[in-house]
Design a protein that fits this description.
Structural class: alpha+beta
Helix content: 10-25%
Order of helices and strands: EHEEHEE
Low-confidence stretches: none
Strand order of the largest sheet: 2-3-1-4-5
Number of strands: 5
Mean pLDDT: 91
Strand content: 25-35%
Oligomer: single chain
Largest sheet: 5 strands, antiparallel
Distance between the termini: 38 Å
Number of helices: 2
Length: 106
């Protein structure tokens, strides 16, 4: 039996990337998932959007089995986002009907 949580993170384009790494501030979440969930990480998916224009945000997704939601939220809220007003974390557990939306504390 599994208990999968769907994760979606939306950020400004390259939030913090010039200061830190390829995916900037999202790499904090990448590293948390890699260490705690058998090498799992977020996939960057904004390049797969339809239409004739590029998405005006970065979008990352993952599905994690038995996610410790409180720990993930702690990691998320500890990040110093470059543009926190443009960041959203969406979580939907296997028993949830809709995504819960979390924003950084500004």
């Amino acid at each position: 039996m599994t208990d999968i949580t769907n994760i979606i993170i939306l950020t400004s384009i390259d939030d913090g990337a010039w200061m830190k790494s390829d995916h900037g501030n999202v790499d904090v979440v990448h590293e948390y998932l890699r260490k705690n969930y058998q090498g799992s990480s977020l996939a960057k998916v904004d390049g797969h959007g339809g239409g004739r224009k590029r998405m005006s945000c970065d979008i990352f997704m993952a599905a994690i089995d038995y996610l410790n939601k409180e720990e993930l939220l702690e990691q998320f809220h500890a990040i110093e986002w470059q543009r926190p007003e443009q960041v959203q974390l969406l979580l939907k557990g296997s028993k949830d009907n809709v995504f819960q939306v979390y924003c950084p504390k500004i």
